[in-house]
C-alpha cells in the first residue's frame, strides 16, 4: 500500500538533509520505518487513515524535534489532512509560516497556557465550538488554524517569547478543570502532555469528539508500538496493539458513516 507523505514527513527529510551525522536517538540501532519511525515490525503506516476534521494545524518544531522517534506531533499530520509543519528560527521565521498566518481563509489560534499571554492578547478558555457558533453563518466562517509549539516545555516557552508574530494571535488555553478531566480519563502518567494530546483537547474544544477519540486511539497505538520495541524492559502485549488497530479502524468507519446523507 502506498502511503502518501505529509508535512512532517517532508520536514523530517529536509531536517535530515541539514544534518552532518545521523540523529542519535534511543534505540538508534533499530531498523525503523522511514515514515512512522517505529521499528519496522511494528510499523503502523498501513493503518493510517485521514479524518474528516474541519480543523487545521501548524506545528512549529524546535530544531531536531522532528527527528525524534518519540515525537508525537507527526501523529496529528498522520490523521488531520490540513496540517502544516515548520522548523522554528529565532532570527529567520519561515516565510511560508508567516504567509499561512496571514491567509484570509484561516483564523489562527495559538494553543498555549493563558498565563503567558501578553497584555491585550486575547485568551479563549471556553469551548471553541461555542465561540465559532457566534461568529455568523457557518459558510462565512474561517477555518480554525491551531498553532502548536512542538518541543520540550522550556523550548516551547522560548519559541513563544522570541517570536513576535505569535504575540498578536488569540490564545486557546485549557482550564485546570479541563486538564484534570483529561488526566482522569487517560490515567496518570509520568511524563508531560505530548503534542498529540494537546491536539486531542483542541479537537474536543472544537466539538469534534469523534476525531479527538480517533487521534487518542492512534496515540495509544503509537505508545504501545513504541514500548513493544523495548520488550526486554516492558512486557509486550501484542493483543493490545491489535485491539487498538481494530478500534481505530472502527472509529474512522463510524466517523465517515455519520457524514452520509440519506435521501428518501
Provide a descriptive summary of the structure in words.
The protein is of the alpha/beta class. The protein has helices spanning 7-18, 73-79, 95-102, 128-133, 153-161, 176-186, 195-205, 209-228, 238-258, and strands spanning 56-61, 83-87, 106-111, 123-124, 143-150, 171-172. A six-stranded parallel beta sheet has the order 2-1-5-3-6-4, with helices on both faces. Helix 7 (195-205) packs antiparallel against helix 8 and helix 8 packs antiparallel against helix 9.
What is the C-alpha radius of gyration, as a whole number of Å? 19 Å
The helicity comes to: 25-40%
User: What is the percentage of strand-forming residues?
Assistant: 5-15%
Shape: globular
Q: What is the helix/strand order?
A: HEHEHEEHEHEHHHH
Assembly state here? single chain
Reported for the largest beta sheet, the result is:
6 strands, parallel
Distance between the termini: 37 Å
Write the layout of secondary structure elements.
Blueprint (H helix, E strand, L loop, with lengths): L6 H12 L37 E6 L11 H7 L3 E5 L7 H8 L3 E6 L11 E2 L3 H6 L9 E8 L2 H9 L9 E2 L3 H11 L8 H11 L3 H20 L9 H21 L6
Parallel strand pairs: 1-2, 1-5, 3-5, 3-6, 4-6
Helix pairs in contact: 7-8, 8-9
Keywords:
264 residues; 9 helices
Give a concise summary.
By secondary structure, the chain is α/β, with parallel strands linked by helices. It has nine helices and six strands; from the N terminus they run αβαβαββαβαβαααα.
Amino acid at each position: 500500500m502506498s502511503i502518501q507523505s505529509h508535512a512532517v514527513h517532508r520536514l523530517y527529510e529536509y531536517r535530515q538533509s541539514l544534518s552532518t551525522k545521523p540523529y542519535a536517538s534511543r534505540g538508534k540501532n533499530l531498523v525503523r520505518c522511514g515514515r512512522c519511525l517505529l521499528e519496522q515490525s511494528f510499523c503502523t503506516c498501513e493503518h493510517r487513515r485521514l479524518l474528516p476534521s474541519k480543523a487545521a494545524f501548524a506545528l512549529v518544531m524546535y530544531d531536531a524535534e522532528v527527528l525524534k522517534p518519540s515525537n508525537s506531533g507527526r501523529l496529528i499530520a498522520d490523521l488531520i489532512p490540513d496540517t502544516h509543519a515548520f522548523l522554528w528560527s529565532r532570527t529567520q521565521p519561515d516565510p511560508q509560516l508567516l504567509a499561512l498566518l496571514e491567509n484570509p481563509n484561516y483564523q489562527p489560534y495559538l494553543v498555549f497556557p493563558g498565563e503567558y499571554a501578553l497584555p491585550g492578547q486575547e485568551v479563549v478558555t471556553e469551548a471553541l465550538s461555542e465561540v465559532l457558533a457566534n461568529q455568523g453563518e457557518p459558510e462565512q466562517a474561517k477555518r480554525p488554524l491551531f498553532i502548536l509549539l512542538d518541543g520540550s516545555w522550556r523550548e516551547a516557552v522560548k519559541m513563544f517569547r522570541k517570536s513576535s508574530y505569535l504575540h498578536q494571535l488569540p490564545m486557546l488555553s485549557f482550564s485546570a478543570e479541563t486538564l484534570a478531566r483529561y488526566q482522569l480519563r487517560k490515567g496518570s502518567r509520568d511524563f508531560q502532555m505530548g503534542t498529540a494530546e494537546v491536539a486531542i483537547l483542541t479537537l474536543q474544544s472544537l466539538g469534534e469528539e469523534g476525531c479527538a477519540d480517533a487521534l487518542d486511539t492512534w496515540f495509544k497505538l503509537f505508545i504501545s508500538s513504541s514500548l513493544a520495541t523495548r520488550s526486554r524492559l516492558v512486557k509486550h502485549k501484542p493483543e493490545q496493539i491489535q485491539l487498538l488497530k481494530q478500534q481505530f479502524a472502527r472509529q474512522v468507519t463510524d466517523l465517515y458513516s455519520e457524514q452520509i446523507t440519506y435521501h428518501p
